[in-house]
Write a structure and sequence with these properties.
alpha/beta; 12 strands
Length: 221
Amino acid sequence: MTKKYFIFLILIAIFGFLYNYDKFLPDDLIKEVIIESNIINSDKKILNQVIHKTIGKQAYKIDLRQIKKELEIDPWIKNTQVILKPPDTIIINIKEYDPIFLWNNLVYVDLEGNLIKSEQLILDDILEINSNIGSAIENYNNYLIIQEILDSIEVNINKISRNNDVMTIDTGKYLFKLRFSQYKPKLYDFVSIYNQFINSQKNSSSKQIIDLRYSTGFAVQ
């Protein structure tokens, strides 16, 4: 057998293997997809569709990047890890966005300032911030200042709205009306006489409107 003939046979063997490589690979089928995450807001339909397409598929044909891409279409998913655990298991770890408030009744915002553009507003018990001035995070920082002031009287904010210099603060029990340019001194003044205010009020189950826009004092409705 000449050297050229030997090389020729090797090349034929290599090309034959490459052409039929899948026949030499193990025939393991995916039997289980494990979700190592606590799914709260993500669309479970998308997740189930991906799992359905994966179960029963040959392990070596699984495109892990494609699975990751399909899952991250969901606006609630921040990132995913997709791992093939031989011989027949896929592990999916999903990290969701964690929103802290609803911005202008349009998008949710997390602590890092990421906007979560959900098609439906699915969260009911969440802080609402509306404003025609400033960014979402700027307005959230104002909320933190206001909430810190109201913490001393154990009042929690549900919703803040601002239109130019006019601001409303809804706590469920009270609805404060005030000017943004004066909100700190006005709220501090109210907090300082809060005990007197409580003692002067009759028990009422309805929300009280407290207008702090007056130069001196305030009005209660």
